[in-house]
């Protein structure tokens, strides 16, 4: 079950192509062609990752994602159409770990899958707690508490917060965050970092009336330890 991938893609030729490539890489693959079946399979099967197309019949990918996220933090890579910026933003908002834009090179897809799977296993193996004021992060349990209240974060948001807390008082450039949190170069799409920071601020800073993440204009972000 560590290498079983669910492909939700209504274009059967593309689904078949992805299936062959993934099997060639040693993954087990199930594929379904509509959102409703995708949701059912995702929730019932033991998958280690889901590759989820956005434009799907019956239930669109973002809605499928939202419903999966209510029950599971399984890694999900969203497949979006070129220039569908809203799909990317609402997909990340709904808890996608990553997205890939059609048409994509199979090597890029494989790289993203490896990163998503690796991040998941790294999360499990680290026994570490990070703190800032009333914010506590338990890496082992993949849990963030503010004043003892649990905060639901996506994997990416969690990784970003972890990186900032591990580098307190050090200003992290967007490119560096992109590189570490995403595991590869996004070719200038560093505004995605701003999107993740905004989500973190909404869930933590705004909600609890604190100012944890500081923006350093033109550079990036930092969490400052105040003495
Ligand atoms: Ca489609």
Any overview of this molecule?
The chain has 227 residues and is α/β, with parallel strands linked by helices. The protein has two domains: 121 residues, Response regulator (Rossmann fold); 98 residues, Winged helix-like DNA-binding domain superfamily/Winged helix DNA-binding domain (Arc Repressor Mutant, subunit A). The chain is built from eight helices and twelve strands. It has a five-stranded parallel β-sheet with strand order 2-1-3-4-5, sandwiched between helices. A four-stranded antiparallel β-sheet has the order 6-7-8-9, with helices on one face. It has a three-stranded antiparallel β-sheet with strand order 10-12-11. β3, α3 and β4 form a beta-alpha-beta unit. The protein is elongated, with a radius of gyration of 18 Å. The model has no long low-confidence stretch (mean pLDDT 88). The structure holds calcium ion. Calcium ion (CA) binds next to loops. The site of calcium ion has 5 residues, from loops.
Bound molecules: calcium ion
What fraction strand? 15-25%
- Main CATH class of the largest domain: Alpha Beta
**DSSP summary, beta strand count:** 12
Low-confidence stretches: none
Structural domain tally: 2
Q: Which radius of gyration do the C-alpha atoms yield? A: 18 Å
* Helical coverage, percent range: 40-55%
